[in-house]
Design brief:
99 residues, alpha+beta, Alpha-D-Glucose-1,6-Bisphosphate, Chain A, domain 4, four-stranded antiparallel beta sheet, 2 helices, globular
Length: 99
């Protein structure tokens, strides 16, 4: 990831479960450029569910942190805004491919 001031951030997602077209789970954390987890940075567990709603698919994220401090640090780092931008981009991409 590249921040608004050009700073680089590296991360790693370790998928722990994948159920085709239903859900995936994984552990997410920041790393150095070689992929070694930075234990001083926030880490989280993700559960992402996909539910068929006919013409659309509902995507639900459940993100858990080991403690409140890591959640607060993630929010302060702009996670909410970054995820919103990513989801808006995905919406646009999917809409452009739906013809």
């Amino acid at each position: 990831m590249i921040g608004p001031n050009g700073e680089e951030h590296w991360s790693l997602a370790e998928y722990t479960q994948v159920e085709f077209e239903k859900k995936y789970t994984g552990i997410d954390g920041f790393t150095d450029t070689e992929g070694k987890i930075n234990i001083d940075m926030p880490q989280s567990k993700w559960v992402v569910n996909f539910t068929d709603k006919g013409d659309i698919t509902l995507v639900e994220f459940m993100i858990n942190y080991p403690d409140l401090i890591q959640l607060e640090r993630t929010i302060q780092m702009g996670f909410k805004e970054g995820l919103s931008v990513a989801m808006e981009g995905l919406d646009e991409l999917l809409a452009s491919n739906k013809k």
